Structures are given as C-alpha cells and as structure tokens.
From TrEMBL:
Coiled coil: none
Keywords of this entry: Carbohydrate metabolism, Glycosidase, Hydrolase
Protein name: Beta-glucosidase
Domain Fibronectin type III-like span(s) in chain numbering: 640-709
Alphabetized SUPFAM superfamilies for the sequence: (Trans)glycosidases, Beta-D-glucan exohydrolase, C-terminal domain
Family statement drawn from the similarity comment of this UniProt entry: Belongs to the glycosyl hydrolase 3 family.
C-alpha cells in the first residue's frame, strides 16, 4: 500500500481502533482468549477488552510457525479493517541455534561472521512466525557490574558501530517485502542505557550531551544509517527526563536531526514507569508525555489505551499525533508485506527444515571459536595429545552456556565441554568432576574433584557465572568468581599440577583468586549451542585462538569504570615530571586494567616492526598511509588483529589517550611476514567540540599500531 492508501485506511478507523494499534501485548494475551473468545488470564488486570485485542497492533514473544499462523488468522477474522498483527521478539544472538552472546561476538572482531549470525537468527525466527527482533543492542558499556554488558559489543564506539551495521544487515537483508526470511531490526536501548549509574540496572544516566554524542550515540546512528526499521526507548533518564518522555532526545534528535521516521517502541512498561520515575503523576500524564515524545508503541502497559481517548477528545493531545504513530506502524507492516501475506515467512515446513540445522550449528561453532579469548598461557595449552586430563568445575558438564536472551535455545542440546573433550581425547579422558556448584559446594564434590585431579597429568577448570547472574537485572557489586569456586581453585592449585581455567560468564570479571593460581585462562563467555565444541578445539589446539577483548578486565571492581579511551588528566601517573604521590592514582591498585581493550593471546607469537607513515603531515585532502610489518615468529599458523589507534594531543576539549580507528586481520603461517596497511584521513579525526560542532583541529597526533590498546609501535603526524 502506498501512503495515500494507508492514510485512507487510517481515515476509516475510529480513535479507539487507532489507539489499539499502539498497543503491544505479550503472547499469553492471545493465548489467554478461550475458544468462546472470552478473556481469561492477565488481560482483565490491565482492563484489556475483547475489542482492544481484536484491534491491537502487535504481539510480543510469540513464536512457532503453526501457532503464529493460527493467531494471525484468528486476528484477521476479528480485526475490523483486516490489519495484521506484528509479531516481535528478542532474537538477540540466535533463535534456536544460539550464537555466543554479543560481547563475545564483539571479541571476534569479525563483522562478516556477526552479520551471518544475525542472518541465520533472522531465518530461523522468520520461518517460526516472527517479523521483528528487538536487536541489535548497541549500548556502549564501561561498567562490568551491569548485567547487560553481555548484550553489547563493548566499550568502543567505532567497533560498536561496525557491529551495529553488521547485525542490521544480517537481520534485515536488502528488501523485507521480498525476503520473507529476514526480520525487521529494532536498535536499542535509546539512549545510553549502558551508562546506568553504579552499574545498577534501570538506574539514572547523567551525561553531558557532548559525551553522549561522542561515545554513546554513534552506534545507534550507525544502525539507523544501515536502515534499521525500529528504535526502542531505554528505561533510564537522560538529563533528568526518562527516555520514553524525552522530547529533546526523541523528537529533536532522533526524528528531526537524524530524520528517523520509523517506529519507536517503549521498553517493557517504560511508559507507565514514568510514574515511579517521577515524570508523571498518573497514567494520563504518562500517556501524554510519551505520545508527545513520539513513542509509537507502548509495550506491555495500557496507559495509551486507558487515557489517550480522553486526552484527544479533551483537546490536550492532537489526534494528528496518534495518526502519525499509526501511520508509522502500518507502514512497517506494509514494508514487511503483511497486508499481502499476513503470515509472511511463517512455514512449519521450513521451520522443520532449517531451524537448528547442521549448517546453522556450524556457523555457531565458527563464531564461538573466533570469540573465545586466550587471556593467559604459560605453556600448558594446547593440551598434549596423550595427557591424562581432569575436567573439574561447575561448568564441566553444564549446558548453561547459552547466556541470557537465548530465546528458543535449549541448554539440553548445547554441546557441553565434557562431551566435546571426551570425543577428542578418547575413552576415559577426561575424568570429570564438578568439584562444586556455581555458588555452593559439598565436601563430597570437593573430594571427588581432588581425587580426579590427583590421577591426572593436567587439570582443566571449568568455572564461571550462571546465566542469570548476568543479563537484564543481573547486576553484581562483587564481580569475582563465587567464593566456592575460588576455594576449589585454591585446593587444586595446591597440587602443583599444570592447570588451565576456562571461564563461562557474561562480563569482565575481577580475576583475583584465580588468575595467578592457574597456568592458563580461556575466556569463553557464554559461547552458545556449540560452545563446548569450540572450547574443546581450542584446548587441544585444533583451533588457534584469535579473539581480542572489546571490554577491559579490571584488576578489581574498585577501579570501575576502567576503559581504554580515557582522558589523561592534569596529573597523569608516570609522567616524566610526575610527583610520587600527588598524581591521579590509587594507593592500593594500579590505574591500568588487568587486561586491556584489544588484548588476546595466540598459540603462536607475532613480532611487529617497520612502522611507517607515508607523511608526517596530513591535510583534509591528503590522507596518510600507515603500515607495519608483522611476522609470525612461532610454530603455528595464526591470525593477528593489528589495531590502529590515534591520540589527538590537544583539542578544544580534552581527547582520549587512545581512539581505535581501524584494524586489519593477518593470517600468517609460521615464519611468514605480512604488512598491515591503513589509510587515515582527516574525517576520522573529527570530534564534538564544546559547542557540539563536529570537526577536526589542526595539530599533532600520535599514532599507535599494535596487538592491543596497550602494546603498540608509535609514531606521530601533524594535521595542518
Ligand atoms: C526487556 C528488555 C528489552 C527487551 C524487552 C522485551 O525489559 O529491556 O531489551 O527487548 O523487555 O522483552
């Protein structure tokens, strides 16, 4: 339908029917209607009536081809204007085939594989009846206390923007009407949810507009530039106004400055939460502020349904605001082809054929292998082929490796580490013992583990956080491994045997009590359906790890927030003329993180030399070429992620000590050398000035090229 046809349809709708399009209800609201069409279950509590359901615009969290087809067909019979339902769900890192959590995917530094993971997730979701996914989540994160860091790709705006684009391309493809096995994407959470104070979910965010534009907003903008169809509001306040009522953020910036004319949906209950926030006295005020801010769909509360009719009829809200919201929703339904085919890609046959297929699982394996970071290795890895191995820890046999937001994924059919290792090491190897649970243990478990360890040549510890210790509302003030696991590590360390630890977790941890007591550490994150296989192949050396951290690991939570692109301060520690005491430092910890952004080890080694700049001067018309030679000086083939950082020495506002501006991956055989070449131009040096103008300044820049943000060869140039 074209705009005129859609406007004609809107013109035939009553006010109540239009407002019902702005309502999103969870699946049970549709399952709760018994076969006489009578309302049962939670609907009554919200005062949702039959007619509202018949006219509602979208359903959250329904999946399954046959069921979705049935719900849609029943809905189409009841909807007075033949307007189909939108089916939306959180397909964040997989539908049934679960990929590593996005923080792990970020560590792959592989946008192509990230795009492929989103494409596969979209296909499995679309054939199962879903039209829209609430992803990508692109919130920049600097605080590992926050449970949702697992859902982001980390602390860098450049990398987050790269992945945001890749995920949107994978989910949406080129044409949602033609490609019915893709889904519309919904970038979230707008905006700056990752800056929640104290790393506590739903908490206050208070940032300068400049800081937001420089660090927190670029990835959302990148997603929208890639054509992302929807935006979701965040739970937090921005400068004292909750995002769902924030006209400056939603009208002025998102819609007017950025030109976004797609659908804006609130997060779950975020419109009604304007009341506890203290931004509205009651549902009427909440509805008033949200519709004025341009929130098109109210997720899971009924302020619009209850209050908009009176607000419009009483003249406080112009009906045009409702009409524009309805138009955006109907336009999205048309883009998805739902008016031509309300069932779109839903197909029980295709569902049976492609969901959790071998091809999809192989892609999940590959991404897990490229997302797993080798954090330490004193030579115990890869495991020797004939070594007797004891696999010990709460994750030795655990299927809880899918992580939060693993939708239709099943922990039962996740490939577990014990089975994967047994398949590779042969009969009776490894010996397996939990040793303890995630947060509790018994003497019996410990004894069994110590016996297994005593009989082994090498010990692999499988440790970490339960998935519910991460994700939404999974915030922790103590980000160490649970004490019972640290006690297990201590007892195993007393044996003095070669020991490697594998971590399954959703955040950078404080590794005190473990890191110094083992000989190797492998960060697997929540690696998804094929996680056990990918980790096993890294442990035995079938895969040479290549992942690099995209979020810093602090020495301790006391350092948080600690991130690589920080400012220098007026009294930087370690400056040539720095005093001993009166500098920016701690008395009881270093300033640097334990493991920096960009860090990751390999089973081979790489040497860098010959950093060259094509010129020591850059102008807006003459970019400079930067190159460095890298040699694989080890005995195995490996992939090196060569990273390019710059530092603007002096600016209108102070500038970070490092900013990632590019990276090149080199696959090198033993003894082979390669050259990483970058082109750096003036546009990449632009930043938001104190007056919010976005431009570069002439002056000196330092250049850093290396294997992490803290290990580089250095050069400099002048922008004139
Ligand atoms: C949750 C999350 C959001 C998700 C939504 C729907 O509260 O904050 O990321 O998309 O509700 O499940």
């Amino acid at each position: 339908m074209d705009n005129q046809q859609l406007l004609g349809l809107i013109g035939r709708m009553t006010l109540e029917e239009k407002i019902a399009q702005l309502v999103q209800l969870a699946a049970p609201f549709y399952e709760g209607v018994d076969d006489e069409g009578q309302i049962t279950g939670p609907m009554q509590a919200m005062g949702i009536t039959d007619s509202m359901i018949a006219s509602s615009g979208s359903v959250l969290g329904y999946a399954g081809a046959a069921g979705a087809i049935a719900v849609q067909e029943a809905h189409m019979k009841k909807n007075p204007h033949g307007i189909p339902l939108l089916f939306m769900a959180d397909i964040v890192h997989g539908f049934r085939t679960i990929f590593p959590v996005p923080l792990a995917i970020g560590c792959s530094w592989n946008a192509e594989l990230a795009q492929k993971s989103a494409e596969i997730a979209a296909r499995e979701a679309a054939v199962s009846g879903i039209h829209v996914t609430f992803a990508p989540m692109v919130d920049l994160v600097r605080d590992p206390r926050w449970g949702r860091v697992m859902e982001s790709t980390g602390e860098d705006p450049y990398l987050n923007s790269l992945f945001a684009r890749a995920f949107v391309r994978g989910f949406q493809g080129e044409d949602l009407k033609e490609e019915t096995e893709r889904v519309a994407a919904c970038v979230k959470h707008f905006a700056a949810y990752g800056a929640s104070e104290a790393g506590r979910d739903y908490n206050t965010v208070d940032l300068s507009e400049r800081q937001m534009r420089e660090y927190y907003l670029p990835a959302y903008k990148a997603a929208l530039e890639e054509g992302c169809e929807m935006v979701m509001t965040s739970f937090n306040t921005i400068d004292g106004i909750p995002a769902s009522a924030n006209e400056k953020l939603m009208r002025s910036l998102l819609r007017e400055e950025w030109g976004f004319d797609g659908v804006l949906i609130s997060d779950w209950g975020a419109v009604k939460e304007l009341i506890p926030h203290g931004a509205a006295e009651d549902e009427r005020e909440a509805a008033y502020r949200a519709i004025r801010a341009g929130v098109d769909i109210e997720m899971m509360t009924a302020c619009y349904v209850h209050e908009l009719p009176e607000l419009v009829r009483g003249g406080r809200v112009d009906e045009a605001l409702v009409d524009e919201a309805v138009l955006r929703i109907l336009r999205l339904k048309d883009k998805l082809g739902l008016f031509d085919n309300p069932n779109r890609g839903a197909s029980p046959e295709r569902e049976a054929e492609i969901v959790f297929s071998r091809e999809h699982r192989e892609a999940a394996y590959e991404l897990a292998a490229q997302s797993t970071v080798l954090l330490k290795n004193d030579g115990v890895l890869p495991l020797k082929p004939d070594a007797k191995v004891a696999l010990i820890g709460p994750f030795a046999r655990s299927g809880d490796i899918l992580g939060p937001w693993s939708w239709d994924g099943s922990t039962e059919d996740a490939v577990k580490l014990d089975a994967a290792l047994a398949e590779r090491l042969g009969p009776g190897n490894p010996a397996v013992a939990e040793g303890c649970g995630i947060e509790e243990g018994t003497e019996e478990q410990l004894r069994e583990a110590l016996n297994a360890a005593a009989a082994a040549d090498v010990i692999v510890l499988a440790l970490g956080e339960a998935s519910e210790m991460s994700g939404e509302a999974g915030c922790r003030t103590d980000i160490r491994l649970p004490q019972v696991q640290l006690d297990l590590v201590a007892r195993i360390a007393e044996l003095g045997k070669p020991t490697a630890a594998v971590l399954f977790n959703g955040r950078p941890l404080d590794l005190h009590g473990m890191y110094d007591r083992v000989d190797a550490v492998v960060e697997a994150w929540f690696p998804g359906s094929e996680g056990g296989a990918a980790v096993a192949d890294i442990l035995i050396g079938a895969v040479n790890p290549s992942a690099r951290l995209t979020m810093s690991f602090p020495h301790s939570v006391g350092q948080v927030p600690v991130y690589y692109n920080h400012f220098n301060t007026g009294r930087p520690q370690g400056a040539p003329d720095a005093q001993v005491r009166y500098v920016s430092q701690y008395l009881d910890a270093p300033n640097e993180p334990l493991l920096p952004f960009g860090f990751g080890l390999s089973y081979t080694t790489f040497e860098y030399d010959g950093l060259k700049l094509s010129s020591d001067k850059m102008t807006p018309d003459s970019p400079i070429a930067i190159s460095v030679n890298v040699t694989n000086t080890g005995s195995r083939a490996g992939t090196e992620t060569v990273q390019l950082y710059v530092r603007d020495i002096a600016g209108d506002v102070v500038r970070p000590v490092r900013e990632l501006k590019g990276f090149v991956k080199l696959d090198l055989a033993p003894g082979e050398s390669g050259t990483a070449v970058f082109t750096l131009n003036e546009e990449q040096l632009r930043y938001h000035h104190s007056d919010l103008s976005f431009k570069s300044d002439p002056g000196r820049f330092d250049v850093f090229v290396g294997r992490s943000s803290a290990d580089t060869l250095n050069g400099s140039f002048t922008l004139i």
